[in-house]
Design goal:
This protein has 342 residues and is of the alpha/beta class. The protein is 38% helix and 25% strand. The two termini are 37 Å apart. The structure holds nicotinamide-adenine-dinucleotide. Nicotinamide-adenine-dinucleotide binds next to loops. The site of nicotinamide-adenine-dinucleotide (NAD) has 23 residues, from loops.
Length: 342
Amino acid sequence: MNNKKIRVAIIGLGRLGAIHAKNVAEQNNDFDLIAVCAAEEQLKWAKTQLGISATYTDYRKMIDEEQLDAVFIVGPTALHPEMTIYALNAGLHVFCEKPLGVDLQSVNEMVQTIHSHPKQIFQSGFMRRFDSSYLYAKKMVENGEIGKIIYIRGYGIDPLSGIESFTKFATASDSGGIFLDMNIHDIDLVRWFTGHEPVRTWALANNIAAPELEKINEYETGVAQLEMDDGVIATLVGGRHAAHGYQVELEIMGSNGWIRIGEHPEKNLVTLFTNKGVVRPVVQDFVERFSQAFIDEIKAFAANIKNKTQPEATVEDGLKALKIAKACQKSVDTNQIVDIKL
Ligand code: NAD
């Protein structure tokens, strides 16, 4: 395997799958993108833009017919477990987007299958762990530069301009709810930065900014308070109403200083001076904000396959993040404080 290219395929060519496909095809010499699987209308794009001739609408057929080493799973969240199980049983390494799934029973089956294939790499899409700002902040925290963590707050708020496409998506498939869909990365970051687990949550949600979501049983904004096992307090804020763009922010308050990452989600170093005022353009979506992290995480996947090393973020991290998101949702649904059992 060491000098040979890794033969990969991608399942899903939607908002994120197309980015991964481009990155795999153009940014990484370790991979050979052999085949893709998605809805018929998206396959043409892969043929014309990426020159992929092996295109499928049935992922099982693709895995059975192509001689693959690995697969990227970027299909709908609810299908991640069955796709992962099928790929692992076919002997492939798997990169699977977050979250692991929607329903805990199928995710548990997925986790068991991952454990029963210890020689195959399983990597989940926690790409924020590859983002240079988070990595920089993590070093600062580890070096004690802000003292002991007291409080941590994660914002995951999509642009208002995306509300229509979200409504279509959530009408067609199960998003898993505001905390699973929007805050799973923040939950992972809270655990990653603090090194501790949450034990209880109290969460609230509303639809003031998007009353139409009521009809499809979704919330536009959700806020969860988490009590960590060492007394640290965490807040998660998920939403889809940011008028200015994509607000993904993390604040870590320490006993001797604070860190804020993405407080102003600036696009670049440009400041615009016009008769409207002094303006800093901001990033508009996850693609823009995490473009380099998406490249770095697939490079790490290739390195993990070549070096036979499992990634730092394990499937247990994915499972715990899922359980925490579900506990937050349960707190909203039951209007109760919910104990978190991981
Ligand atoms: P999307 O709806 O835009 O795309 C889904 C893709 O899956 C489409 O290409 C569709 O044709 C394909 N698909 C649907 N059913 C299929 C099936 N049965 N077999 C094969 N392909 C099938 O979705 P998206 O926004 O790209 O999200 C995909 C996944 O990526 C989700 O799990 C989502 O949570 C995750 N995601 C992660 C991040 C991140 O920050 N890491 C960002 C966006 C999305």
